[in-house]
Design brief:
559 residues; mainly alpha; 1% strand
Amino acid sequence: MPFFSTTISYLGTYLSRNLSSLPNSSNLSHISPKKRSQIIRLAQAVLTDYFHYTRSLPFVHAEHIGKNSFYSLDDPISKIELSLSTFPKSFEKFLMYHPINEFEFFFESIGITREEISGFLPPNKFFFAEDRRVLNAAGALSVFGFPWNKLGILCKAEASIFNKDADNLSRRLCEFKGYGLNTVSVIGICLAFPFVLGGKGDLGVEARALFDDLKRIFMDSDLGSLVEENVDSWYEICRKIRLFYDLGCEKGKIGELMGKSRNIFLEYPEDVLVRKIDFFCRLNVRKADIGLLLLESPEILSFDLEAPVISVMGFLKHFGLGLQKSKSVARMYPYILGRNKMANLPHVMRALDLHEWFFGMMRNRNHYLLGNYVLSHPDEDLDKDYIDGLQKIQSSTTPVHTINKLNFFHGIGFGENSLTIKALERVHGTSSEIQERFDFLLHAGLEFSKLCTMISFTAKILNQKREILERKVDFLIQEMGLSLQYLHVFPAYLCFNLENRIKPRCRFHAWLAENGLCTTNYSLGSRIATSDKSFMARLYRIHPAIPKLWLEYYSPQKD
């Protein structure tokens, strides 16, 4: 059965660029949409003639640029009297006496957005006569069959392509056809893998390995005969294939496996593949192994990994976790227990520090357990305290705000239980702010499961703004010389004021030690968490004169 490509996203992009831009043109918003559309069509015709007759561009190039430039026309049009009868002559005269940046129009016409164009313009050059390389390269690609308005895909990914000699580009494209591929398939491959057109000299090792794989996929497994014969279809299917290389699967080594699993590329839209890949990437396992898992066990792609509800302990039992290990998990991670959504399973597993075990089970052909899991009964693992807390949230004055924060906790693995509700009550800020703070601590180097444990004990660490967390972490590591892992022992460190508590006390203790006045090596927690009264009493025990030194030189109240 032929493969019918999903072109909705491309259609949306086309309409957005070519139709909606007309009424939204900023300098022409004061005229009616109908007249605006007529003016722009007239301007495009004049521009096409200008590029062809005045600037001596081949008509086909001039027409491509003229008909695909909307935003670049906005400024010059706004300087002309907008009379339909006189506009063509007026605009033609304007172009004669007011040179335009031809590269700006060119880059917009090939699909570079208005916001991106400035990054591609050659410095101090306005005319193609000053540098014809981009135009010549575009011409060679267009003659081969590349859609003009898709050349921007190549340009954004591999700008060096447009500095290449046109004849060299043509030879490279013909070389690709030597693998038994036709013109349309070569175009789709190049759009998905622009690097194959870049580089100098002969085809590189990586590109050859890629084409060896593609030959196995499209020719040997006969996938090519099932792809609809148009650029969009080939580009789409090649983008699906690229997803697996982006995961780190080695080019030249997985063509046969992809060929055996060719239905993946026929039956599943790209966004489905992306969502499934993202699901397993959240396990923080080796990405190339994720690609191999999906290619070896493509049934996984049909599993609903978002909506189903799971019981954490029931799920672990379903996957064969032993009784003693299950008891240990329940004892160590009580805040993870209860129910959660299947979509949050990867972070549930990371919060339990079982993500590698779970993924190992998947790789060992136990993936069917993921597909056939269901709750053992409707009331399995329902937590009454959680339900009561949820009802209070829903009847509060800010239910949406609080539910979003609750979803954050479930998203990092916390289950539907009373401990999650208690942690939620201690955390302030929006869900996006809390997520940003969590992500910072995670990327700083804290282990996922241990960070969740820290939050379960000291949820207030998520009340700190990201910039403040960053300064506290820097002080801990740079000035105190401690490992970030110290926070596992004393997470409350992050809750104290850096300037008024942490720095002055730590620096005063360091001064005492340097001057031989204090031989006791107090822990960081003892230095910071001790109350002001107890801290002063400690200083007095060291020496009666020391509290005065503290108050005069180090105390935040000294001023």
